[in-house]
Amino acid sequence: MGASEFALFFSVKEAVKGVKVMEWIQQLINGVSLGSIYALIALGYTMVYGIIKLINFAHGDVFMIGGFIGFYAMVRWDMGFIPALLLAMILCAVFGVIIERVAYKRLRNSTRIAALITAIGVSLLIEYTVVFFRGAQPEGYPDLFVEKNITILGVQISKTSILILAVSIVLMLLLQFIVQKTKIGKAMRAVSHDADAARLMGINVDNTISATFAIGSALAGAAGVIFGVYYTKVDPFMGIIPGLKAFVAAVLGGIGIIPGAMVGGMLLGVVETFVSALGFSLWRDAAAFIILILILIFRPEGIFGKNTREKV
Amino acid sequence: MKKSKIFWSYLILALVIYAVGQALISLNIIDMYYKNMLITMCINIMLAVSLHVVIGVTGQFSIGHAGFLAIGAYVSAIFTMKLGMPFIVAILVGAIVATLAGLIVGIPTLRLKGDYLAIATLGFAEIIRITFLNIDYVGGAAGMQVTQLSNWTYAFFAALITIIVISNFTKSRHGRACIAIREDEIAADAMGINTTYYKVTAFALGAFFAGVAGGIFSHNVFIIQPSAFGFLKSFDILIFVVLGGLGSLSGAIISAVLLTLVSTYLGNFPETRMIIYSLVLILVMLYRPTGLLGTKEITDLFKSKKKGGIDHDQ
């Protein structure tokens, strides 16, 4: 074997290694963009839980409704992506407030079990009402881009991933601005800290809770549209599993903590994509639940949570 | 003396119900469809009662009961179909494996409370389902063929034993400890009740009977698929317990019977069934959050009001 052959052998080996690294970077980007969908849903979960201590199971179905609104807007009414996204967000915000006013408002002082079961009931009602009116068959999303991938520094990245990432980052920054800088955001933080004290300070707690639902649902609606773009299909039950995973993401980051939901969602997306990439794609859905159980057992307050002592 | 008299009269009532059911089936008065409904009813009663001991008696909010049903179903099916064991043995083995799973799930998760426990049990049930989905030995997503071995006798007596054991458990010292945990865990702990022990016991007991129900279920449906044990199934079971009244054994039985009837008659309109189900669930929770019977039993209605004054409602 001559020296040149050796050189060739090593260069091939290097190239193979290089491809591997590139693949992993690609997977990482896919994971982050999938994770940002989870993060958007998780934000609604975490905000609602932070403010009224309710696991809003219907949140995944608001996400589903958002996906359908986006579909009808783009396919039937020929809207562009951004108008469809905005329409889905607005309608979902209204829908979220209606759910809160009709079903959850009366449950403020009831037991946690009653509230949780009502949420499950609302979730089933939304799913099967949609099935009742349009059937359970999935709907195909239009392709947004003719050319699917772009190459940056040798890494093939799908344009949809970039779009998803961009939309989610913009929305998350907007949310941070609303929560930290505006009056309603201040009211939301106050109510989640201590609802009674907030009421004494003259904050309209009911309106604040509704606003929380509106913001959370708008984010879920946006997530529904970009989920449709990412997976190119929507169906009436698509909210169940992403909804549960988003809850896992919220718990992972520390429930009630907004940056926690973002990081938790991204982390979960990356873990899932890596599990699939390693060839265990059928176990992908289990990964989220295994993470959930590990986090609940070892660090129930989540990554960003503070340990609160139980008071008798 | 009086207690045993009541017990025997209920047992005789149960045997009469069994005889009527058997007569209807043997004399071909009811067809396969309704016979199947009767067996499903017994399975649902078993599931409702076994979840009742976890949620209603001990107050631990588990929404992953379908996981134990799945274990009972698959393990017993493996024992009859692959290993050629008798049906009874298979049911028992399935139930024991489900109990072990209940212990494995229960010991770490029962330290959690309320919503977190609910989500953790849901997560475990999903992991169990996905595990069966990935085992080729039991057919993966396509499912596993099972011959029909369940009949009215098996289903009825399994349900009867479930009810007797759970009702005796509830009335025993252990059951009272569990009720104390439901009412106030911290106070129960302070009174010297080993709360973890009783929570895990109730959980394992619930898992055992869910496993029995799984054995009967899998040998009644010809083919079992992981998709039948998704979390919608868990919610179905939860609905039985909640509608009947959290803490009421007879409530769980009654709602299991009624909802099985409703879903059989609406079997051709699954969407309508689920819409009605969910509306009823929401309305009951909004206007009567304790469920139809609250913590009372239907048998309390027959007792004389002499005692009076004892109200178990919170």
TrEMBL record, chain B:
InterPro entries: ABC_transp_permease, LivM-like. It is found in: Cell membrane. The keyword Chaperone does not apply. One of its GO terms (cellular component) is plasma membrane. Pfam families: BPD_transp_2. It is a multi-pass membrane protein. Keywords: Cell membrane, Membrane, Transmembrane, Transmembrane helix. It comes from the Bacteria. The keyword Cell division does not apply. GO terms for molecular function: branched-chain amino acid transmembrane transporter activity. The chain crosses the membrane at residues 6-25, 37-55, 61-80, 87-110, 116-137, 149-167, 200-223, 235-262, 274-295. This is ABC transporter. The lineage of its organism: Bacteria, Bacillati, Bacillota, Bacilli, Bacillales.
